[in-house]
Amino acid sequence: MTRPELLLGPGAVEVTESGLRLSIRQPWYRSLPLSSVVDLEVSVDGESVNRDALRMRVDGEDYGLDDLPARWDTVWFIQDAAEVDVPVALEPGPAHVEVALTLRFPYIIIDGVGPLRRRTTATADVHIDRSTR
């Protein structure tokens, strides 16, 4: 069981000059290596953001999603939020943000399948104000 309320909690979406910054936390009960991140999907108002444009910052280091599988030696601690920069053009008014994080749990092996994977989705509604741009 994963916990979506941890993935994208209250106040986790910030408007920046280039789009949005998300503060996400692992929706799991124990810390995992960054190589456990299988995928991260973000959409704003139903429009998917290109995964190649997403950058994830953990413990002060910046990674593209394709960099993560090799980061078995870097731990994403459950008490630490990762920041995800989302370059997206925003219009003033309400915006609906959806985040989906797929994690692989290397210590839970399913016979004939391999490591357990779980996809957790969370949403947030934000208001884009001209003064915050």
Report on the architecture of this protein.
- With 133 residues, the protein is mainly beta.
- It has one domain.
- The protein is built from one helix and eleven strands.
- The protein has a five-stranded antiparallel β-sheet, with no helix packed on it. Strands 5-4-10-11 form a four-stranded antiparallel β-sheet.
- Strand 10 (93-110) and strand 11 form a beta hairpin.
- The longest helix has 4 residues, at 4-7.
Structural features:
single chain; 133 residues; mainly beta; five-stranded antiparallel β-sheet; four-stranded antiparallel β-sheet
Q: Could you give a quick summary of the protein structure above?
A:
With 133 residues, the protein is mainly β. It is built from one helix and eleven strands.
Beta-strand content estimate? over 45%
Question: Main β-sheet: number of strands, strand sense, barrel status?
Answer: 5 strands, antiparallel
Order of helices and strands: HEEEEEEEEEEE
* Rg from alpha-carbon coordinates: 15 Å
**Distance between the ends:** 37 Å
Let me know the number of strands.
11
Outline type: globular
Give the class from helix and strand content and strand pairing: mainly beta
Residue runs with pLDDT of under 50 for 5 or more positions: none
Number of helices: 1
Strand order of the largest sheet: 1-2-9-6-7
Q: Indicate the mean pLDDT.
A: 90
Helical proportion? under 10%
